[in-house]
TrEMBL record, chains A, B:
The Polyphosphate kinase-2-related domain, residue ranges: 12-231, 274-492
PANTHER family: POLYPHOSPHATE:AMP PHOSPHOTRANSFERASE, POLYPHOSPHATE:AMP PHOSPHOTRANSFERASE-RELATED
Name of this protein: Polyphosphate:AMP phosphotransferase
Reaction equations catalysed: [phosphate](n) + ATP = [phosphate](n+1) + ADP
GO BP of this protein: ATP biosynthetic process; polyphosphate metabolic process
Keyword Coiled coil: no
């Protein structure tokens, strides 16, 4: 991987000066296409040992581009602990479509650093690289292009430069890495891990480009050319075709009658008022106690509510709300995305609401919208909702791995019960707002939702985040089941 | 203030049940007007001693409203230290127009708590209340209405309830306040401070409503009625008239020829290339050293660049950029607001970028847009830009008080020099993007900008955040002056 760059690469000052104006003009024109099209954003990852000139490349690119549409994305030092899932900080910083983000430090940093320091075994390292590969594939599908540049410097030269650097005014950031990774053993392991990472994550959509960094002008001209190439490739992508309405939302057509997981539920289950009062209070107390325990301060709770219209999501959330400390939870009803949300990958608007440890977030409808309403209504194409299952599993897995308990509910009622509740809503003044003509229309799509729910549960019910189907024909039964599930899950997780 | 509520207030269960359905329906209808009009948001502040039922009122309101457009805004405990200016967290949480935010804990908490604990003298307390009054007036002018409810409980009853509370499962949040403010002396001081605060901040646009809290149904019915009244008052506000273009942007017409502060600058100042190289490097080194010092970790740097088109803002920022650790600074070019920004008070989009301590943020154009381009182009009315001076001073003062160094520059060139630079931009391919036909058109407004700048400097050059006018006819001179000013200000602040 790093073999061919070990030969000397050099560009004469005069040659560079001759080349620069047209490179600059071409880059600007290509950047304006990105800005005007607003279809994609571009992340430029610049990696390399300290002293290889990451900051230098950054400054040169800033001199060439329209900087008003470029952001530098930086993150704290690689090994620092955080109070949110590790991927949260990268999601938060994603620039909107039309813009370029230049990253110093990225999702490669933590695994490389931990591997070099011997804190991570090879199997875990490989698995981390695979996660990265899936993450980058998701970004690419969702409108974020990647240009990954690896600045190569041989070890002797890298050490020499680092020493020179630590003598200057730039003491703070360098010395810390120097202390951690400065030893010859760790540097060797970092080199090996880097080569392995570059190989494993050089995919078709996001290959690594190794750039010899010893000669400054060569390095920068190379980086500029790669950027130009990437921008031109983005501009040349064909305009996406308008989404056709899917003729049939089930993915695998067949002769067998479709299986409906919802039809297996026993909707007759119910509680008497006395049972309800007693059990509701008990589960609320359990949740209060568990979410106030010290162990919860290192965990967190993420709850997603889905279900048919009028299945009782809001009233269930209200009972859950009463068990929680208002200082430490939020409810997010999911409505139409804002323009800041529309200009980024789909999951961005959920990641932005993932709270600190020790807190709870409740989603009233959730990221499953893509495989439910967007699928059934044809708001996105089969490609989009088809790959959403895997992306959602990765998302929930990352949140779970960070210690959060992820609980998701489907509240199920029968068609007849829904009709009854709609009519009730029409007849009571202060409930009328909950019903729109669209709700009545959606009833015609019941079989489509049935199929979508079945596939959703099949494909996204995981060990860390299993689906809980809630028999909601009797509201009291449903509320207690939801609260008890949350309490049980918290108890199991907090030990 | 609290006298009349000491008598018994009571509502029979039956009366409450009779009243509730119509109150609920009225509330919903009024809320829908807020949602549909999207002109204003409403913050409901609920204050009162622990045990007075703040959470109870909150839950009842949630039972009555369309909760999808209501957010609970909570903040950490009153006396906790923070890593950003104290007002930042309130700004961050402002709901968009059309929504209701219910606040448990607010900007009243810290001064009340500090006053009750004897950490704050009376003069400082009064001055904190005045700041709050100005802040609330700004919110009101900028589309945020306020409903402030004070739940009253006599001391005997409050103590009894608090004791009962600490026995239950809700141990964590209560016990901390109890420990801090539970003593009879502190409670008495809290009561006195509360009364003083309620009196001092009961303004016409945001009066306090004291609600007797001993009887739960009375308390909630009262809170609901106040909310209904407030929502109806908002709905009844006349539609704002479309903004007329101001006939004359100077506020005080008179016989004297207008004074131009920019005309007093000596634009002939310049540096030789050798002076420039040496001085630029020196100032960059100073800034690097100062922003890497431990003292800077408890401070921060906020820089705003304004100036004529082509005065050299971008190229100056580039020289500043090179002196800063890329891990710890951001540049924000100010362009058209996003819809999330448009749905909130003007200063929100600047507050959201105020960084943690130890970091730098550079604004390429800034919050002064309101009194410059928006004023001159008639994008907002004289009322809006007229009150912006005071609001901006408060904003900068709050940031400065939190330890940040606030530096603001106007880069000045002559009309002739601007024409020369525009022509240069036209002739060089990679500079052409910096010039639009609008830039040429804007030259006709030179005298209007001249007057706007003069008034801006007069009214917003403060001791903590003075304006620095930069003679930018010679780019080298300008860059060194900017960097030296920043280094000097940092040196003075960090000691």
């Amino acid at each position: 991987m790093f073999e061919s760059v070990k030969f000397e690469h050099h560009l004469d000052k005069a040659d560079f000066k001759a080349l620069e104006p047209s490179l600059r003009e071409d880059l600007l024109n290509a950047q304006f296409q990105l800005i005007d099209q607003k279809r994609r954003s571009l992340l430029v990852l610049i990696h390399g040992p300290d002293g290889s000139g990451k900051g230098g490349v950054l400054n040169r690119l800033y001199g060439w581009l329209d900087v008003r549409k470029v952001q530098t994305l930086t993150f704290d030092m690689p090994c620092a602990e955080e109070d949110r899932p590790p991927m949260w900080k990268y999601w938060r910083e994603l620039p909107p479509f039309g813009q370029i983000g230049v990253m110093l430090g990225s999702w490669y940093h933590a695994p490389l650093c931990r591997r070099a320091l011997g804190e991570m075994g090879r199997a875990d390292f490989i698995s981390a690289l695979q996660e990265i590969q899936r993450f980058e594939a998701m970004l690419h599908s969702e409108g974020v292009s990647l240009l990954k540049i690896w600045l190569y410097l041989d070890d002797e030269e890298a050490r020499r430069r680092l020493k020179a650097l630590t003598k200057g005014a730039w003491q703070r950031p360098v010395v810390r890495e120097w202390a951690e990774l400065g030893g010859a053993g760790a540097r060797k392991r970092l080199y090996e891990a880097s080569e392995e990472a570059a190989r494993a994550t050089s995919t078709e959509i996001a290959p690594w480009h190794v750039v010899p960094a010893a000669d400054v002008d060569y390095r920068d001209a190379m980086a500029g050319s790669l950027l130009l190439e990437t921008l031109r490739a983005i501009a040349a992508e064909p305009e996406p075709a308008p989404q056709p309405l899917p003729p049939n939302p089930t993915r695998v057509p067949g002769a067998l009658p479709p299986f409906s997981i919802l039809s297996t539920l026993d909707l007759s289950q119910s509680l008497t008022p006395a049972e309800y009062e007693a059990q509701l209070a008990r589960e609320q107390n359990r949740i209060t106690r568990l979410t106030n325990s010290p162990a919860f301060g290192r965990a967190g709770l993420v709850v997603a509510f889905e279900g048919s219209d009028a299945a009782g999501k809001s009233s269930t959330i209200m009972r859950l709300r009463r068990a929680l400390d208002p200082q430490r939870f939020r409810v997010h009803p999911i409505a139409a995305p804002t323009d800041e949300e529309r200009a980024r990958p789909y999951l961005w608007r959920f990641w932005r609401h993932i709270p600190q440890h020790g807190r709870t977030v409740i989603f009233d409808r959730s990221w499953y919208g893509r495989v439910l309403v967007e699928r059934v209504e044809g708001l996105c194409g089969p490609d989009d909702w088809g790959r959403a299952y895997g992306e959602i599993n990765d998302f929930e897995d990352q949140v779970s791995q960070a210690g959060y308990v992820v609980v998701k509910f489907w509240l199920a009622i029968s068609e007849a019960e829904q009709a009854r509740r709609f009519e009730e809503r029409e007849s009571i003044a202060y409930k009328r707002f909950k019903l729109t003509p669209e709700d009545w229309r959606n009833r015609g799509k019941w079989p489509l939702y049935d199929a979508a729910v079945t596939e959703m549960v099949d494909r996204t019910s995981t060990r860390t985040a299993p689906w809980v189907l809630v028999e909601a024909e009797d509201k009291h039964f449903a509320r207690v089941k939801v609260l008890r599930t949350i309490a049980d899950r918290l108890e199991a997780a907090l030990g």
